Amino acid sequence: MRFMPIVPVSCVELLDDWDDLFLLPDMMLNSHYNWYVRSRHWDTVIIENGYYELGESLSVRYLEKIADTIVGDTCIVVGPETSSGEETVLKSVMVLGAKYPVLTILKGDVRRLWTLHQKALRYVGLVSKPTPYEGDQEPWYVDRVKYVKYIKGMEPDVYIHAFGCDSLSELMELKRAGADSCDSSFVCSRAIARESLDTWHTKRVDLWAQYSEEEKEQMREYLREVKRRL
Predict the structure, then answer these.
(1) What pTM was computed for the model?
(2) 55-66 pLDDT, tens per residue?
(3) Secondary structure, 3-state, the chain
(4) Which terminal residue of the chain, N or C, has fewer Cβ atoms less than 10 Å from its own Cβ?
(5) Which residues, 6 or more positions from 70, have their beta carbon under 8 angstroms from its beta carbon?
């Protein structure tokens, strides 16, 4: 599985040892981050639609313009997204003439949406449940792991990206289930908090802040540990 760590813009060199990139479009407004991303070769790049960070989806055409500036073996753009799972799928599969593969987000009733639209879906993304339900008897990410197994069991060649994860345990479960890639800032968040990689729900690292050399080295060590475990 490809893990795509999200790091603060001021620490983008932490990605030197990683060949795959999950790109948040607003980060490209930072000149140093922009230069770094465009200056090297990547294996797989997924360009996020901005919905989570900006509150609304950027157009596929806009994301394609970003992809045009990146040197990568595979560039994937995330399709349109709304609060409705059904509308999100319909808007995504209706994108015509795209230059790059369009990844469709499945959220809400995942099995129903997959059953209805699976013939049109070759790249799909599964979002993370934001918080555990009170009284959960098993890890809260189990449902998403089950969805990965369900889809891969029916269509092994479908590319599945897991949007975000909250711990190393979750990342390993997604890998075992057959997810193709996953992005997250959890590694840097745990490093700054000096907590275990399996600590849950640490405050997200500030992606726009400046960090000391000691903090950068701490993040680098945590990232190395994740790479070793994968």
Answers:
(1) 0.94
(2) 899 999 999 999
(3) CEEEECCCHHHHHHHHHCCEEEECHHHHHCHHHHHHHHHCEEEEEEECCCHHHHCCCCCHHHHHHHHHCCEEEEEEEECCCCCCHHHHHHHHHCCCCCCCCEEEEECCCHHHHHHHHHHHCCEEEEECCCCCCCCCCCCCCHHHHHHHHHHHHHCCCCEEEEECCCCHHHHHHHHHHCCCEEEECHHHHHHHHCCCCCCCCCCCCCCCCCCCHHHHHHHHHHHHHHHHHC
(4) C
(5) 23, 37, 38, 42, 45
Q: Which domains does the chain have, with CATH numbers?
A: 2-229 (3.20.20.105)
Contact status, residue 20 vs residue 2, Cβ threshold 8 Å: yes
Closest CA to 89 of 67, 70, 108: 108
Neighbours of 35 (CB within 10 A): 12
Taking only the tens place, the pLDDT of each residue in 159-207 is 999 999 999 999 999 999 999 999 999 999 999 999 999 987 678 899 9
Residue pair 225/24 in contact by the 8 Å Cβ criterion: no
Exposed, middle or buried by CB within 10 Å (0-12, 13-18, 19+), for 48? Answer: buried
Express each pLDDT in 111-120 by its tens digit. Answer: 999 999 999 9
* Burial class of 82 by CB neighbour count within 10 A (0 to 12, 13 to 18, 19+): middle
Amino acid at position 98, single letter: A
